[in-house]
Predict the structure.
Amino acid sequence: MRMIQSLAAICLYFSLAVSAAAAPQPVELKPMRHKEAQLEVRPGDGSGAVYEPADLENFPTYRVETTTPWRETPAVFEGILLTDLLAAHGLLGAPSIRVTAENDYSAVIAREVWEAAPILVATRVDGRPHSRRERGPIQFIVPSEDYVGSPIVTEDHLVWMAAVIEVVD
């Protein structure tokens, strides 16, 4: 019985360590020159704002290490939480948003997605400004543990070259 309890404790320890490692961790980012890019938030009430990557980094910043469908080796992504950006515009209660990329790709993200998993609006990767060549300069990242096998969060929500966020009814 003692051996089973010991094994259970070890499994719990490692599962908590993996979960903590996957969750975005607060980080203080030093200013740096970014690639030219803009992310426009359109709440639908006539207000809104346009953010460059450095402007986004005025929100609390976070770091997550994860793989993506396009990166087999884990990378360190840094940026802000989508929920912080949505809250700043009174959009946390919106039923869904549409994120449109510079290349006109778009994805609708329902509220249950950002409530189910942390979505990082990444402006940096591996300590460098995120580039278009690396699916930046503004990329929506979800830790792989949160979307692999999830019926709610999918790789469709990992928008790169993100340019516009607007409310969808």
In short: The chain has a mean pLDDT of 85. The two ends are 55 Å apart (CA to CA). The CA atoms of residues 140 and 146 lie 13 Å apart. The longest helix spans residues 2-22.
